[in-house]
C-alpha cells in the first residue's frame, strides 16, 4: 500500500500496518485461536487434538 501511494501520489498518507493477531481474529468468528510460541510438543499436541 505504501509503495502504491508513493508511486501514485509521490507520498504516503498515514499508512502503518502490523501483523494481525490471528488468535483474536479467530475468536472474533467464534473459533478457538491458538498461539504457538515454538514447535515440538505444542505442534504435535495440536495435530493430535485437531479433527482435520
Walk me through the topology:
Elements lengths: L1 H8 L12 H7 L12 H9 L3
Describe the structure.
By secondary structure, the chain is an all-alpha fold. It has one domain. The protein has three helices and no strands. It starts with a helix and ends with a helix. The model has no long low-confidence stretch (mean pLDDT 77).
What's the gist of this structure?
By secondary structure, this protein is mostly helical. Helix content is 46%, strand content 0%. The protein is built from 3 helices and no strands.
Mean pLDDT figure:
77
- Percent helix among the residues? 40-55%
Structural class call reads mainly alpha
What share of the residues does DSSP label as strand, in percent?
under 5%
Number of domains in the coordinates?
1
Q: How many strand segments?
A: 0
Q: Tell the overall outline.
A: elongated
N-C termini distance: 35 Å
How many helices does DSSP assign?
Answer: 3
Q: Give me the strand/helix succession.
A: HHH
- Rounded radius of gyration (Å): 18 Å
- Describe the sheet with the most strands: none
Stretches with pLDDT under 50, minimum 5 residues: none
